[in-house]
């Protein structure tokens, strides 16, 4: 009897529910946590049903079968109403599944039907989620998709859909792990439509790959706090695209390269002056040099370049040198083609032995070589020139002509006695032994600290400045440890790299990495001192003392770290603005091609101090900065002759200096001297 009554009740309920307006009323109430007043309920219903008659009749019908109830606050579902509404929604879902077939265009350029199980597997595999939680998220994605009007999705859009649901559920870490790398279409269009001659088809692909590598480093390889240091402009990392893959550079004594050249080609004696043998030496030298290129992101400094390579040409007729040097420079341009970034990635070291009676002849050969090299690169590559480093102690400067070759930014003069050898990143190389192979060094990286950013955070409080600087230094130490492990992991599987380590550095990979030079540097020193002290470091003793204290803190922390674990951290100064190349994406770092914002120089370009006073201040920093330091001098003929400038700098025994002047000033100086 009870069964018959239940059937009667069910029949009555189904008749009343057989109306889409009443089902819609149940759905609205089901999604509300509080009772809904009559007027609000009617308004919500009118959004989907413009013409509703007898609204009260529909409500009373639902009340009659006890699915809704009313109070002074409004209408709400009864317990039975909630359960029946849930069943109605489940029935709709089943019907939708039967009728609807959402298609997904996959990343493999194929189309396939939506599959809830694939989302679940994706979340477990790539998002590292627990299976039960992945199942819940996958079910939520499915429910929302089938409620929508979407019938076609690409794989990236599907991932965005999943990511929104993850964020709504507080699963930000999972969302981070699922981040896809790539260049936005807008940026790709800009590259495609660019009129820049450097963006050739092969460079176009390389640029896209570089963007992905940079994103992967910042999103997946670096801890968030360390990545934020770069993004916020607190530090600068060089060559971000290769940061986790390659060391920054190498110092390699040219004698080591020549040893490999002659060991590979037994027929080369090194004594014959036949054109065929000299050309073979040139070609094989370049081939050995090319072995380094897959493994550096910055540059390679060839120590004693003129002593062990250009010396092969000293007995040849001067008029024959240009043809040989043209072959060398055309072969060297292969580097530009490989890297595709218009930077030389090569620095050349020129030394002069005080015991030699042929310094003048050697310097003449060196000058012919550099003129030919620069001219050929200008013609073929329109690229930056290799940096030339001259040991000035034994070089007679009256022989150094007033030429752009030496005084427009492509030459550094250094004192080999106190500063040993430096490269274009200004990293000093300490010779560990008399053995030539012991001189060769890997330069793991140079990380630069933005001192001006620290000054802004310190709010002119000395204690705050020192505390923030120390925290940043500790973070930089962590970055170096991370880079060392990442580079080792990548290079360990490459047989050619192990062979190179054995030949050139006489050690296994682990030892080479541990003994590599790790340079900590800075930029924005003058801006920081002006911000912190209110006046530039070259204008007030107090400002100068605080600047010296800043670099002293960095030096002391480096020495403590080296004593602790035997690392080879050094403090160095940047001489070029190469840090901008890897830091343009950091919106916090000011970059302007026309102005030297955030200069790496210690003595600012527009200092009003006489040259001797500038040198006196600079030498105080020289005593602290043990990894390479450069005095950049800007010459104009109103302040004396170029020779007088050079004499003043050499008498001061500055570790390294460069002189920059315009062609106009060079011409004026030439007329004065002659």
Can you describe this structure?
By secondary structure, this protein is an alpha/beta fold. The protein has five domains: 97 residues, Arc Repressor Mutant, subunit A, CATH 1.10.10; 75 residues, no CATH class; 36 residues, no CATH class; 178 residues, no CATH class; 171 residues, no CATH class. The protein is built from 30 helices and 16 strands. Strand 10, helix 19 and strand 11 form a beta-alpha-beta unit.
Poorly predicted residue ranges: 432-437, 578-596, 670-674
Estimate the global geometry from the Cα principal axes.
elongated
Distance between the termini: 128 Å
Radius of gyration of CA atoms, rounded to a whole number: 36 Å
The biggest beta sheet reads: 11 strands, mixed
Helix content percent band: 40-55%
């Amino acid at each position: 009897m009870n069964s018959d009554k239940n059937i009667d009740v069910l029949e009555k309920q189904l008749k009343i529910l057989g109306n889409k307006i009443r089902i819609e009323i149940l759905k609205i109430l089901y999604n509300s946590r509080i009772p809904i007043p009559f007027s609000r309920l009617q308004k919500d219903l009118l959004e989907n049903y413009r013409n509703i008659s007898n609204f009260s009749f529909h409500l009373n019908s639902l009340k009659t079968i006890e699915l809704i109830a009313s109070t002074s606050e409004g209408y709400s579902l009864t317990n039975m109403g909630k359960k029946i509404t849930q069943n109605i929604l489940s029935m709709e879902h089943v019907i939708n599944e039967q009728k609807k077939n959402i298609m997904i265009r996959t990343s493999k350029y194929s189309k396939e039907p939506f599959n809830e199980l694939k989302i679940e597997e994706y979340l477990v595999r790539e998002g590292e989620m627990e299976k039960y939680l992945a199942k819940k998220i996958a079910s939520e994605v499915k429910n929302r998709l089938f409620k929508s009007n979407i019938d076609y999705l690409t794989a990236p859009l599907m991932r965005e859909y999943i990511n929104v649901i993850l964020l709504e559920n507080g699963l930000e870490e999972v969302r981070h792990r699922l981040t896809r790398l790539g260049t936005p279409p807008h940026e790709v269009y800009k590259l495609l439509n660019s009129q820049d001659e450097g963006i050739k088809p092969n460079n176009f692909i390389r640029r896209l790959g570089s963007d992905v590598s940079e994103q992967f480093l910042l999103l997946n390889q670096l801890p968030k706090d360390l990545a934020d240091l770069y993004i916020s402009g607190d530090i600068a990392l060089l060559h971000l695209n290769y940061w986790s893959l390659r060391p920054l550079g190498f110092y390699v004594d040219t004698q080591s390269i020549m040893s490999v050249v002659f060991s590979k080609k037994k027929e080369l004696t090194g004594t014959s002056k036949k054109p065929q043998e000299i050309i073979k030496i040139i070609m094989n030298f370049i081939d050995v040099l090319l072995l380094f290129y897959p493994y550096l992101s910055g540059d390679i400094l060839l120590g004693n370049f003129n002593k062990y390579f250009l010396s092969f040409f000293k007995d040849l007729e001067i008029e024959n040198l240009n043809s040989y040097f043209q072959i060398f420079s055309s072969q060297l341009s292969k580097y530009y083609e490989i890297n595709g970034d218009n930077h030389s990635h090569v620095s050349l070291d020129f030394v002069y032995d005080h015991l030699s009676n042929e310094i003048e002849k050697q310097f003449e050969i060196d000058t012919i070589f550099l003129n030919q090299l620069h001219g050929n690169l200008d013609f073929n590559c329109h690229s930056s020139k290799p940096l030339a480093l001259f040991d000035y102690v034994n070089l007679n400067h009256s022989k150094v002509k007033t030429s752009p070759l030496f005084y427009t930014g492509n030459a550094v003069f250094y004192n080999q006695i106190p500063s040993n050898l430096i490269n274009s990143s200004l990293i000093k190389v300490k010779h560990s032994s008399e053995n030539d192979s012991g001189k060769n060094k890997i330069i793991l990286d140079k990380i630069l600290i933005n001192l001006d950013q620290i000054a802004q955070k310190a709010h002119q409080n000395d204690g705050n400045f020192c505390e923030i600087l120390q925290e940043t230094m500790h973070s930089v130490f962590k970055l170096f440890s991370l880079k060392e492990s990442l580079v080792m992991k990548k290079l360990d599987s490459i047989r050619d790299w192990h062979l190179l380590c054995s030949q050139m550095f006489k050690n296994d990979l682990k030892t080479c990495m541990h003994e590599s030079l790790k340079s900590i540097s800075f930029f924005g020193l003058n801006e920081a001192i002006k911000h912190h002290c209110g006046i530039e470091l070259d204008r007030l003793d107090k400002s100068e003392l605080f600047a010296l204290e800043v670099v002293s803190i960095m030096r002391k922390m480096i020495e403590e770290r080296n004593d602790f674990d035997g690392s080879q951290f050094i403090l160095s100064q940047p001489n070029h603005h190469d840090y901008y190349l890897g830091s343009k994406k950091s919106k916090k770092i000011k970059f302007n091609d026309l102005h030297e914002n955030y200069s790496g120089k210690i003595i600012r370009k527009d200092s009003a101090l006489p040259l001797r006073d500038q040198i006196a201040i600079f030498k105080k920093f020289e005593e602290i900065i043990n990894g390479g330091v450069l005095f950049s001098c800007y010459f104009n003929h109103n302040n004396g002759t170029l020779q007088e400038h050079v004499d003043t700098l050499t008498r001061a025994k500055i570790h390294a200096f460069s002189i920059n002047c315009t062609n106009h000033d060079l011409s004026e100086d030439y007329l004065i001297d002659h």
